[in-house]
Amino acid sequence: MADPAAVSQARQWITHQLTLWGLDELLFTTQLIVSELVTNAIRYGRAPMDLRLIRHNVLVCEVTDSSSTQPRLRRTRTTEEGGRGLFLVARLGGRWGCRHAQNGKTIWSEQTIHDSL
Q1: Could you tell me whether strands 50-55 and 104-112 are parallel, antiparallel, or unpaired per DSSP bridges?
Q2: How far apart are the first and last CA of the chain?
Q3: Got the DSSP string for 40-84?
Q4: Domain segments of the chain: what residues?
Q5: Among 2, 14, 57, 77, which residue's beta carbon has the most beta carbons within 10 A?
Q6: C-alpha distance from residue 86 to each of 57, 95, 102 (Å)
Q7: How are beta strands 95-101 and 58-65 bridged, if at all?
Q8: What is the pLDDT of residues 71-81, one digit of tens each?
Q9: Coil, strand, or helix at residue 16?
Q10: CATH for 5-112?
Q11: Nearest of 26, 23, 105 to residue 63 by alpha carbon
Q12: Residue 32: which of 87, 79, 71, 98 has the closest Cα?
């Protein structure tokens, strides 16, 4: 997944999966979150990389890479073109975080699933 085209492929997969689950209302936000997480994994992480969605009481998006580098929110100037990815993830998702394992890390973001009655 180290190719920048992986971001587009990830968005396509997310669209397909959320449509199957009937979670169309989360589609736009989830695409943005996944785009940022995958882009960061490509830019700062190491292969192999993996993307996973977990649907339970919440929707969890996880991106795993083989780097142990701790992600961090940055303060960016208005003139900077990048550096806002984790800020967007933090604002769009309900919660987010990072867990480390022996062979890398997983960055995750959680969104509330609203039941439609």
Answers
A1: unpaired
A2: 38
A3: HHHHH--SS-EEEEEESSEEEEEEEES--PPP------TT-SS--
A4: 5-112
A5: 14
A6: 23, 11, 23
A7: unpaired
A8: 666 665 555 45
A9: helix
A10: 3.30.565.10
A11: 105
A12: 87
